[in-house]
Amino acid sequence: MTTPSAGQSGVRSVSPTLNTNRVIARRPQITSPTTPGTLPRIPRTPGAPMLGQPGGLNRGPSATGGTARPTVGVPPASFRGPQAGRNLTAITPQMQQRTAQQLMNGLRQQNAGRLITPKPGVTRDSLGNLIPKNARMLDPIGTTVGRSFRNVIDRVGLPNHPFTFTPHPGGNFNHHHGGFFNHEEENENHFFGFNFFFPFYWSDAFWFGWWYPGFYPSIYSYWGWGPGWIYPDQAYYQPPVYSYPSYSYPTYNYYGYSGTAAAPAYTLDTAGVEQAIADLRAAWVNSDISLLANHLTDQLDLQVYFDGKYTYTTTTSNYYAMTADTMALSHTVEMTLDAPVWISANEVFYTGTHVYQDPAGDQHTVYLSYRLRQLGSGWYIVAVGSSTQPIQSEYKDFRYR
Description:
With 401 residues, the protein is α+β, with helices and mostly antiparallel strands. The protein has one domain: Roll (Nuclear Transport Factor 2, Chain: A), CATH 3.10.450.50. Helices cover 18% and strands 21% of the residues. The chain has seven helices and 18 strands. The strands form five sheets. Strands 12, 13, 14, 15, 16, 17 and 18 form a seven-stranded mixed beta sheet that branches. Strand 12 (302-306) and strand 13 (309-314) form a beta hairpin. The radius of gyration is 22 Å and the shape is globular.
């Protein structure tokens, strides 16, 4: 990766002190989801909070007695749960408009208040992690993603949650040193700081592996310019189970579907699906998150896949915030989406390719997927996926079974 130079690229130097051994030694407790529908135990956050950061501290007694080290408090997410969709059949246009407005207002409020900008002399980020001494603060306005960043902040305001991270664009992870990034051996300047919209990331600039013990990968980990993980209480593990109707399907002919006694005649909302996927594509091409919000509902939680495998479920508001971060720090060069696989008459699966530039000006490709469901007159995202390789559909098109 070509690292931009200060002054021309929108990055500037900060020079806090660094204790490399201390940073590398800090790891949360190792936990992982084992039972569907359950959360892993929340790891204790290493380090101390950023000086001057209001609230968010937990100084409760430790398991061994006495007082625990200060930790950064992470409020639990408000989940709808895996049963929420069972009785949900329709979302009115008024409900959709209200959700889109609430998502935008909620993100603004979450990032309201005094803007916290890491600067020389500030030694810790919002997690309490020591900021590496050669970390550089990213100013996207002066980079290739400047227009994308401006378009996003014009709609949802400025991000206000500082994190330090090591970029790994295009899914460029490695597992050297057990996952730790040995900066002294690599002798490269890879550390960056930036304010993000989503406040519940976990980041460790010295960790360069895909999995971080006790945390889930963030939705856009493969895009690479941002913290790599989220707190476990911002997600839950409930793999979806699909059951297909047992009745016989209508036969397909040139004019559409012909009805039978077991399966009455019906039509597919192809125009609605095409408009929905066109909106999602335009949202990325134009960095217009409001177009994406038109296809989100807070009545269902959203499932997340990596490399074709279900990983966790999170809230719509979490997805919206993480999308705003990635949309602001990437410039879409091209987004192509393949023909849909109709899982049922009211659910479709799309795969596609996202070619984008990162703030350093380098171009990368990530493969993505969307699963959309018709709820009333609209189509809504119920699952998203990403991979460094083209995604193969795990679903069969019901029209041809």
